[in-house]
Design a protein that fits this description.
By secondary structure, the chain is mostly helical. The protein has a single domain, classed as Formate dehydrogenase/DMSO reductase fold (Up-down Bundle), CATH 1.20.1630. Helix content is about 80%, strand content about 0%. The protein has 16 helices and 2 strands.
Length: about 325
Protein backbone atom coordinates (compact mmCIF):
# COMPACT_ATOMS: atom_id res chain seq x y z
CA UNK A 1 0.00 0.00 0.00
CA UNK A 2 2.84 2.38 0.87
CA UNK A 3 4.57 1.82 -2.50
CA UNK A 4 1.25 2.14 -4.35
CA UNK A 5 0.36 5.43 -2.65
CA UNK A 6 3.89 6.74 -3.19
CA UNK A 7 3.64 5.79 -6.87
CA UNK A 8 0.51 7.90 -7.15
CA UNK A 9 2.35 10.81 -5.52
CA UNK A 10 4.93 10.45 -8.28
CA UNK A 11 2.27 10.36 -11.00
CA UNK A 12 0.59 13.51 -9.68
CA UNK A 13 3.96 15.25 -9.24
CA UNK A 14 4.81 14.40 -12.85
CA UNK A 15 1.50 15.83 -14.11
CA UNK A 16 2.00 19.03 -12.13
CA UNK A 17 5.55 19.68 -13.36
CA UNK A 18 4.49 18.97 -16.95
CA UNK A 19 1.84 21.66 -16.61
CA UNK A 20 4.20 24.10 -14.90
CA UNK A 21 6.72 23.80 -17.74
CA UNK A 22 4.37 23.59 -20.73
CA UNK A 23 1.59 25.79 -19.39
CA UNK A 24 4.18 28.09 -17.84
CA UNK A 25 5.79 29.28 -21.04
CA UNK A 26 2.46 29.93 -22.78
CA UNK A 27 1.22 31.90 -19.76
CA UNK A 28 4.53 33.76 -19.80
CA UNK A 29 4.09 34.68 -23.45
CA UNK A 30 0.54 35.85 -22.69
CA UNK A 31 1.92 38.11 -19.96
CA UNK A 32 4.66 39.45 -22.26
CA UNK A 33 2.42 40.04 -25.27
CA UNK A 34 0.80 43.25 -24.01
CA UNK A 35 4.16 45.05 -23.83
CA UNK A 36 5.00 44.62 -27.52
CA UNK A 37 3.84 47.74 -29.37
CA UNK A 38 4.17 46.35 -32.89
CA UNK A 39 1.00 44.52 -33.95
CA UNK A 40 2.88 42.10 -36.19
CA UNK A 41 5.12 41.09 -33.30
CA UNK A 42 2.08 40.47 -31.10
CA UNK A 43 0.62 38.34 -33.89
CA UNK A 44 3.79 36.25 -33.99
CA UNK A 45 3.79 35.87 -30.20
CA UNK A 46 0.27 34.50 -30.19
CA UNK A 47 0.98 32.33 -33.25
CA UNK A 48 3.93 30.74 -31.41
CA UNK A 49 1.63 29.23 -28.76
CA UNK A 50 -1.66 28.97 -30.66
CA UNK A 51 -1.15 25.34 -31.84
CA UNK A 52 -0.14 23.99 -28.42
CA UNK A 53 -1.61 26.10 -25.61
CA UNK A 54 -4.85 24.12 -25.29
CA UNK A 55 -2.99 20.78 -25.17
CA UNK A 56 -0.80 22.15 -22.38
CA UNK A 57 -3.88 22.55 -20.17
CA UNK A 58 -4.46 18.79 -20.37
CA UNK A 59 -1.78 18.28 -17.74
CA UNK A 60 -3.59 20.58 -15.30
CA UNK A 61 -6.76 18.53 -15.70
CA UNK A 62 -4.73 15.34 -15.35
CA UNK A 63 -3.15 16.52 -12.09
CA UNK A 64 -6.46 17.62 -10.58
CA UNK A 65 -8.31 14.46 -11.62
CA UNK A 66 -5.64 12.11 -10.28
CA UNK A 67 -5.48 13.99 -6.98
CA UNK A 68 -9.26 13.59 -6.63
CA UNK A 69 -9.16 9.88 -7.46
CA UNK A 70 -6.02 8.79 -5.61
CA UNK A 71 -6.20 11.06 -2.54
CA UNK A 72 -9.87 12.00 -2.06
CA UNK A 73 -9.37 13.04 1.57
CA UNK A 74 -6.69 15.52 0.53
CA UNK A 75 -8.83 16.85 -2.32
CA UNK A 76 -11.83 17.38 -0.05
CA UNK A 77 -9.63 19.09 2.57
CA UNK A 78 -7.83 21.43 0.16
CA UNK A 79 -10.70 22.49 -2.08
CA UNK A 80 -12.89 24.32 0.47
CA UNK A 81 -9.89 26.28 1.77
CA UNK A 82 -8.70 27.21 -1.72
CA UNK A 83 -12.03 27.88 -3.45
CA UNK A 84 -11.24 31.49 -4.33
CA UNK A 85 -7.74 31.12 -5.90
CA UNK A 86 -8.79 27.96 -7.72
CA UNK A 87 -11.92 29.68 -9.04
CA UNK A 88 -9.85 32.69 -10.13
CA UNK A 89 -7.44 30.38 -11.97
CA UNK A 90 -10.19 28.44 -13.74
CA UNK A 91 -12.08 31.57 -14.80
CA UNK A 92 -8.85 33.23 -15.98
CA UNK A 93 -7.87 30.19 -18.06
CA UNK A 94 -11.35 29.94 -19.60
CA UNK A 95 -11.43 33.67 -20.30
CA UNK A 96 -7.97 33.44 -21.85
CA UNK A 97 -8.98 30.54 -24.10
CA UNK A 98 -12.04 32.41 -25.38
CA UNK A 99 -9.89 35.49 -26.02
CA UNK A 100 -7.54 33.49 -28.25
CA UNK A 101 -10.44 32.46 -30.49
CA UNK A 102 -12.08 35.91 -30.64
CA UNK A 103 -8.77 37.61 -31.36
CA UNK A 104 -8.32 35.52 -34.51
CA UNK A 105 -11.57 36.87 -35.98
CA UNK A 106 -11.67 40.36 -34.49
CA UNK A 107 -10.74 43.49 -36.44
CA UNK A 108 -11.85 46.55 -34.47
CA UNK A 109 -11.75 44.79 -31.08
CA UNK A 110 -8.47 42.95 -31.62
CA UNK A 111 -6.59 45.05 -29.05
CA UNK A 112 -9.33 44.41 -26.49
CA UNK A 113 -8.92 40.64 -26.81
CA UNK A 114 -5.14 40.99 -26.54
CA UNK A 115 -5.64 42.77 -23.21
CA UNK A 116 -7.94 39.93 -22.17
CA UNK A 117 -5.23 37.38 -23.00
CA UNK A 118 -2.81 39.38 -20.86
CA UNK A 119 -5.23 39.64 -17.92
CA UNK A 120 -6.17 35.97 -18.12
CA UNK A 121 -2.50 34.97 -18.12
CA UNK A 122 -1.65 37.29 -15.20
CA UNK A 123 -4.54 36.26 -12.97
CA UNK A 124 -4.05 32.54 -13.68
CA UNK A 125 -0.37 32.86 -12.74
CA UNK A 126 -1.10 34.90 -9.60
CA UNK A 127 -3.66 32.29 -8.48
CA UNK A 128 -1.15 29.49 -9.04
CA UNK A 129 1.49 31.43 -7.08
CA UNK A 130 -0.87 31.93 -4.16
CA UNK A 131 -1.73 28.21 -4.16
CA UNK A 132 1.99 27.33 -4.28
CA UNK A 133 2.68 29.66 -1.36
CA UNK A 134 -0.04 27.98 0.69
CA UNK A 135 1.40 24.53 0.00
CA UNK A 136 4.89 25.62 1.07
CA UNK A 137 3.82 27.21 4.35
CA UNK A 138 1.18 24.58 5.14
CA UNK A 139 -2.58 24.40 5.62
CA UNK A 140 -4.75 25.01 8.62
CA UNK A 141 -7.66 22.60 8.27
CA UNK A 142 -9.42 24.12 11.28
CA UNK A 143 -9.81 27.41 9.38
CA UNK A 144 -13.21 28.26 7.95
CA UNK A 145 -13.84 27.45 4.29
CA UNK A 146 -12.63 30.22 2.00
CA UNK A 147 -10.68 32.02 4.74
CA UNK A 148 -8.65 34.63 2.87
CA UNK A 149 -5.66 34.58 5.23
CA UNK A 150 -5.21 30.88 4.40
CA UNK A 151 -3.94 31.75 0.91
CA UNK A 152 -3.57 35.54 0.73
CA UNK A 153 -0.54 36.50 2.80
CA UNK A 154 2.91 38.06 2.23
CA UNK A 155 4.62 34.77 1.39
CA UNK A 156 1.88 33.79 -1.07
CA UNK A 157 2.13 37.18 -2.80
CA UNK A 158 5.92 36.79 -3.00
CA UNK A 159 5.49 33.34 -4.60
CA UNK A 160 2.99 34.79 -7.10
CA UNK A 161 5.46 37.53 -8.14
CA UNK A 162 8.29 34.99 -8.41
CA UNK A 163 6.10 32.69 -10.52
CA UNK A 164 5.21 35.53 -12.90
CA UNK A 165 8.95 36.17 -13.41
CA UNK A 166 9.59 32.44 -13.87
CA UNK A 167 6.85 32.03 -16.47
CA UNK A 168 8.02 35.13 -18.35
CA UNK A 169 11.54 33.66 -18.41
CA UNK A 170 10.20 30.40 -19.88
CA UNK A 171 8.12 32.37 -22.38
CA UNK A 172 11.06 34.53 -23.50
CA UNK A 173 13.27 31.46 -23.92
CA UNK A 174 10.56 29.68 -25.93
CA UNK A 175 10.30 32.71 -28.21
CA UNK A 176 14.06 32.57 -28.76
CA UNK A 177 13.50 29.12 -30.26
CA UNK A 178 10.38 30.01 -32.24
CA UNK A 179 11.23 33.45 -33.65
CA UNK A 180 13.95 35.21 -35.62
CA UNK A 181 15.20 38.70 -36.31
CA UNK A 182 14.10 41.64 -34.15
CA UNK A 183 11.61 39.66 -32.10
CA UNK A 184 14.23 37.08 -31.22
CA UNK A 185 16.64 39.85 -30.19
CA UNK A 186 13.99 41.34 -27.91
CA UNK A 187 13.42 37.90 -26.40
CA UNK A 188 17.15 37.51 -25.72
CA UNK A 189 17.19 40.94 -24.06
CA UNK A 190 14.15 40.17 -21.90
CA UNK A 191 15.49 36.77 -20.84
CA UNK A 192 18.82 38.39 -19.97
CA UNK A 193 17.10 40.86 -17.65
CA UNK A 194 14.50 38.60 -16.06
CA UNK A 195 17.11 35.99 -15.07
CA UNK A 196 18.36 38.32 -12.34
CA UNK A 197 14.83 38.67 -10.95
CA UNK A 198 14.65 34.88 -10.92
CA UNK A 199 17.86 34.76 -8.88
CA UNK A 200 16.37 37.25 -6.42
CA UNK A 201 13.20 35.15 -6.23
CA UNK A 202 15.18 31.96 -5.56
CA UNK A 203 17.12 33.61 -2.75
CA UNK A 204 14.00 35.18 -1.21
CA UNK A 205 11.93 31.97 -1.19
CA UNK A 206 14.88 29.82 -0.05
CA UNK A 207 15.65 32.13 2.89
CA UNK A 208 11.99 32.70 3.81
CA UNK A 209 10.70 29.10 3.60
CA UNK A 210 12.59 27.59 6.57
CA UNK A 211 11.15 30.27 8.88
CA UNK A 212 7.58 29.34 7.93
CA UNK A 213 7.66 26.00 9.70
CA UNK A 214 10.04 24.33 12.13
CA UNK A 215 9.98 21.02 10.21
CA UNK A 216 11.29 22.73 7.05
CA UNK A 217 14.07 24.40 9.05
CA UNK A 218 15.00 21.12 10.71
CA UNK A 219 15.06 19.18 7.44
CA UNK A 220 17.16 21.61 5.42
CA UNK A 221 19.60 22.61 8.16
CA UNK A 222 20.11 19.20 9.72
CA UNK A 223 23.90 18.54 9.52
CA UNK A 224 23.20 14.99 8.33
CA UNK A 225 21.04 16.21 5.42
CA UNK A 226 22.97 19.30 4.38
CA UNK A 227 25.69 17.55 2.29
CA UNK A 228 22.95 15.97 0.14
CA UNK A 229 20.47 18.83 0.05
CA UNK A 230 23.20 21.35 -0.80
CA UNK A 231 23.27 19.74 -4.26
CA UNK A 232 19.97 21.45 -5.16
CA UNK A 233 20.94 25.10 -4.61
CA UNK A 234 24.37 24.48 -6.15
CA UNK A 235 22.78 22.85 -9.22
CA UNK A 236 20.30 25.73 -9.47
CA UNK A 237 23.10 28.31 -9.45
CA UNK A 238 25.04 26.33 -12.07
CA UNK A 239 21.95 26.23 -14.28
CA UNK A 240 21.46 29.96 -13.79
CA UNK A 241 25.06 30.64 -14.86
CA UNK A 242 24.52 28.30 -17.82
CA UNK A 243 21.44 30.30 -18.77
CA UNK A 244 23.38 33.56 -18.52
CA UNK A 245 26.18 32.13 -20.68
CA UNK A 246 23.70 30.79 -23.25
CA UNK A 247 21.94 34.16 -23.53
CA UNK A 248 25.26 35.97 -23.94
CA UNK A 249 26.42 33.54 -26.66
CA UNK A 250 23.01 33.66 -28.39
CA UNK A 251 22.32 29.92 -28.18
CA UNK A 252 18.72 29.09 -29.08
CA UNK A 253 17.84 25.90 -27.20
CA UNK A 254 20.15 25.99 -24.19
CA UNK A 255 18.43 28.94 -22.42
CA UNK A 256 15.07 27.14 -22.48
CA UNK A 257 16.46 23.84 -21.21
CA UNK A 258 18.52 25.50 -18.48
CA UNK A 259 15.41 27.39 -17.34
CA UNK A 260 13.50 24.09 -17.21
CA UNK A 261 16.35 22.68 -15.12
CA UNK A 262 16.00 25.55 -12.65
CA UNK A 263 12.28 24.88 -12.33
CA UNK A 264 12.98 21.18 -11.73
CA UNK A 265 15.49 21.97 -8.97
CA UNK A 266 12.98 24.27 -7.25
CA UNK A 267 10.27 21.64 -7.63
CA UNK A 268 12.48 18.99 -6.02
CA UNK A 269 13.15 21.40 -3.16
CA UNK A 270 9.41 21.91 -2.73
CA UNK A 271 8.81 18.14 -2.62
CA UNK A 272 11.60 17.66 -0.06
CA UNK A 273 10.11 20.41 2.15
CA UNK A 274 6.63 18.88 2.03
CA UNK A 275 7.35 15.14 2.24
CA UNK A 276 5.55 13.02 3.52
CA UNK A 277 2.58 15.41 3.55
CA UNK A 278 0.19 15.77 0.65
CA UNK A 279 -1.69 18.42 2.65
CA UNK A 280 1.41 20.06 4.18
CA UNK A 281 1.67 19.82 7.97
CA UNK A 282 -1.85 18.35 8.22
CA UNK A 283 -2.27 15.10 6.25
CA UNK A 284 0.30 12.59 4.97
CA UNK A 285 -0.08 10.87 1.63
CA UNK A 286 -0.75 7.55 3.39
CA UNK A 287 -3.55 9.02 5.50
CA UNK A 288 -5.16 10.65 2.45
CA UNK A 289 -4.84 7.74 0.01
CA UNK A 290 -7.84 5.89 -1.38
CA UNK A 291 -8.15 2.16 -0.70
CA UNK A 292 -5.82 -0.27 -2.42
CA UNK A 293 -8.37 -1.59 -4.96
CA UNK A 294 -9.16 1.96 -6.14
CA UNK A 295 -5.49 2.85 -6.54
CA UNK A 296 -4.84 -0.35 -8.50
CA UNK A 297 -7.88 0.17 -10.73
CA UNK A 298 -6.86 3.74 -11.56
CA UNK A 299 -3.25 2.70 -12.09
CA UNK A 300 -4.39 0.42 -14.91
CA UNK A 301 -6.22 3.38 -16.46
CA UNK A 302 -3.13 5.60 -16.19
CA UNK A 303 -0.95 2.92 -17.77
CA UNK A 304 -3.37 2.84 -20.72
CA UNK A 305 -3.88 6.61 -21.08
CA UNK A 306 -0.46 8.03 -20.19
CA UNK A 307 1.42 6.80 -23.30
CA UNK A 308 -1.10 8.38 -25.76
CA UNK A 309 -1.05 11.62 -23.74
CA UNK A 310 2.74 11.74 -23.78
CA UNK A 311 2.83 10.90 -27.50
CA UNK A 312 0.22 13.56 -28.27
CA UNK A 313 2.30 16.15 -26.40
CA UNK A 314 5.46 15.07 -28.21
CA UNK A 315 3.79 14.95 -31.64
CA UNK A 316 2.09 18.35 -31.28
CA UNK A 317 5.45 19.99 -30.62
CA UNK A 318 7.12 18.00 -33.38
CA UNK A 319 4.54 18.86 -36.03
CA UNK A 320 4.59 22.57 -35.13
CA UNK A 321 8.35 22.84 -34.72
CA UNK A 322 10.35 25.49 -36.53
CA UNK A 323 10.23 29.26 -36.64
CA UNK A 324 6.99 31.22 -36.62
CA UNK A 325 7.04 33.48 -39.66
CA UNK A 326 3.39 34.39 -40.20
CA UNK A 327 0.11 34.91 -38.36
CA UNK A 328 -1.75 31.75 -37.35
CA UNK A 329 1.45 29.76 -37.93
Amino acid sequence: MNILALSWCGIIAFGVIMYVILGGFDLGIGIMSIFFKDEKERDLLVSAILPVWDGNQTWLVFGGATLYGAFPAAFSAILPLMYIPILIMVIALLFRGVSFEFRLKAIKTKRFWEICIFLGSVFATIAQGLILGTFVQGFNLSASAGAIDQWFNPFGVACAIALICGYVLLGANFLIIKTAGKLQEKSYALAGKIQYLILAGFVMVSVWSPFLDHSIMERWFNPKNMPYLAILPIATLLLLFTHRFAIKKKYEYLPFWSAIGMFLMCYLGFIISCYPYIVPREMTYMAAAADRSSLLFMLVGVCIMMPPLLYYTYYSYKIFRGKVTQIGY
